[in-house]
Hints:
By secondary structure, this protein is α/β, with parallel strands linked by helices. The protein has four helices and five strands, in the order H-E-E-H-E-H-E-E-H.
Amino acid sequence: MSTLAPTPAAPTTRHEPPMIERLAAMTQxxxxxxxxxxxxxxxxxxxxxxxxxxxxRFPEGQDVAAVLPELLKATPTACQVGVVRxxxxxxxxxxxxxxxxxxxVFFRDGQYATVLPGMHDxxxxxxxxxxxxxxxxxxxxxxxxxxxxxxxxxxxxxx
Length: 159
């Protein structure tokens, strides 16, 4: 009688929660480079990036990962999906002014458009998701105040 020894799995350095891995597989999502998060959506009219947060501290993130494929099916707009690995989420969240876990960060034509934080009831979520997909590119709400001048005058005082 012969027994076969189990073959060890290939070692990995990072483990994402199963729901995040499932989302990435189901939607053919890209794992987004935190150094250039907008590069992954270049050439895409619409893109959404999931920042799920720590699965223990923010279990809603797993809910959003489960619901996101259904939200994509509920909208006629084709949308590229990106996922940020947990170790890199804080850096990406700061870059786009996201202050709540989980968040969906939306891009239009490769530029930041808006962020949709939290988990919502289905009707509210589908409406807000559609609104976010329709949002025009805008400035990310990061630290700092945009300086806008009227007729070329300095916003800080007379020239």
